[in-house]
Design goal:
It contains two helices and four strands, in the order αββββα. The protein is of the alpha+beta class. The longest helix is centred in the last third of the chain and has 14 residues, at 61-74. The protein has a single domain, classed as N-terminal domain of TfIIb, CATH 2.20.25. It has a four-stranded antiparallel sheet, covered by helices on one side.
């Protein structure tokens, strides 16, 4: 079943775009998320369906660490 979901996702990946910056997306190496080719944001894949809601974004590690550093400076 997983392979069937993955195959369907690969069929449409070329028409998907990051809702944050509108660039294309690619499948992560571990096949658990789509990663924006522009801003690097990650969209997890749940039961073969990419969750591409801005509320569900996983930030790239470097962006997360910058946010933590800014929060620390602001405190």
């Amino acid at each position: 079943m997983e392979n069937e979901h993955l195959q369907r996702l690969l069929e449409i990946i070329d028409i998907l775009a990051c809702p944050a910056c509108k660039n294309g997306v690619m499948l992560s190496d571990d096949k658990t998320a789509l990663i924006c080719e522009g801003c690097g944001k990650r969209y997890r894949i749940w039961k073969g369906i990419p969750i591409m809601l801005l509320e569900e974004i996983e930030l790239p590690e470097d962006e997360c660490s910058e946010d933590v550093q800014q929060d620390a400076k602001g405190s």
